[in-house]
Amino acid sequence: MKIYFDENMPFAKEFFTELCLLHSDAGEKGELIAFSGRTLTAEQVADADVLLVRSITQVNEELLHLNTKLSFVGSATIGTDHIDLEYLERRNVTFHSAPGCNAISVAEYVLSALVVLAERYLINLADLTVGIVGGGNTGTRLSEKLQALSINYKICDPILEQKQAEGNTTDERTYSSLTEVLACNVISLHVPKVEGGQHPTYQLINAKNLALLRDDQILISACRGDVIDNHALLALKESGHGLKVVLDVWQGEPDVLAALIPFTEIATAHIAGYSLEGKARGSEMLYQALCQQLAVEPVYQLTNFLPSASIPMVEINAEFNQILLNQLVKMVYDVRRDDAIFRQQLFIQGFDSLRKNYPIRREFSAVEVTLLPNAFSDVPHRLGFSKKSN
């Protein structure tokens, strides 16, 4: 069996090497082969039995027309807009993605951005209402962290709202309209790229919707670059509008609208979901799916491979407040690091290189927080920091 995998999938060798060796036909050499996701060609994967990609690789007939062996395609990401699902179905190729794999990572990116901006502009987080566009895995994880901090939020998701109205879900959340969400203090975007249909998201935040925003609002995009019309946003900012902008994703990636960067508070290279856990969870989910396809029991899980955090334990001996939140969040992940790297290195290294060489970043769960008697709040644990095992 030959398994081709994106070189940016953490622990791919640890998860998949054994499957290669044990599930190869007699006389066939099992191989696990890494590739660069942006430059993958049809010739490279002509003999692949399994193809494991990330969102930068377009999986379609153009890529696979030389291959007659493929039986499994996996994407270690949430979205599927880079996959020609109809083509794979016609070829009877099994497909699996990794929904929710990096949802926690993205939610913690948003929280780090809010903490940084709150400090920069003396904002009391408790006074904010956050509008979440998209109530799927990522929007849900963000809402849970906001709830842990007693920060008000509203969610807009017309598809989930319709399912709720039709009685096709156990979801009991209250949904808001896009207009209501766009009126919130903070607007955080967590939708896939959808072109056409009843609820398209392509350029959802266009000139018309941008005109609804106030000078005192914060706009955060950590989903897909095409959800915001970058040129319309640039025109708004060049007009002197005070909207505070946090962009992790960009229209036309890997090409970035350079003129927009100076108008952002925080700018990063599509790495919101790039925590070690977030990327590795995608590898784990595809490993489990391939094991199911091969009718074998999974041997490994992510905990077998994750290293200890550089600061694995913290003791808190004070009542939890915004200052302590600031310290705790930044200790694990300070988004200003990635903003500085982006501004200084984008046009030296290039967008894809920044992603490929992204420094290791951990999630809150990698740090064990012990609350001493004078700490009156369990907020850290509800935010996702680990508890001490009994």
UniProtKB/TrEMBL annotation:
Pfam families, alphabetized: 2-Hacid_dh (PF00389), 2-Hacid_dh_C (PF02826), DUF3410 (PF11890)
Subcellular location: Cytoplasm
Primary localisation category: cytoplasm
EC number annotated for this UniProt entry: 1.1.1.290
Record pathway: Cofactor biosynthesis; pyridoxine 5'-phosphate biosynthesis; pyridoxine 5'-phosphate from D-erythrose 4-phosphate: step 2/5
The protein's enzyme class: oxidoreductase
This protein's record includes keyword Transmembrane: no
Keywords: Cytoplasm, NAD, Oxidoreductase, Pyridoxine biosynthesis
Domain named D-isomer specific 2-hydroxyacid dehydrogenase NAD-binding: residues: 123-262
Erythronate-4-phosphate dehydrogenase dimerisation domain location: 305-379
Domain of life of the source: Bacteria
Catalysed reaction, written as an equation: 4-phospho-D-erythronate + NAD(+) = (R)-3-hydroxy-2-oxo-4-phosphooxybutanoate + NADH + H(+)
Residues given in the record as substrate binding sites: S55, T77, Y274
Function comment: Catalyzes the oxidation of erythronate-4-phosphate to 3-hydroxy-2-oxo-4-phosphonooxybutanoate.
Family classification: Belongs to the D-isomer specific 2-hydroxyacid dehydrogenase family. PdxB subfamily.
Protein name in UniProt: Erythronate-4-phosphate dehydrogenase
Organism of origin: Colwellia echini
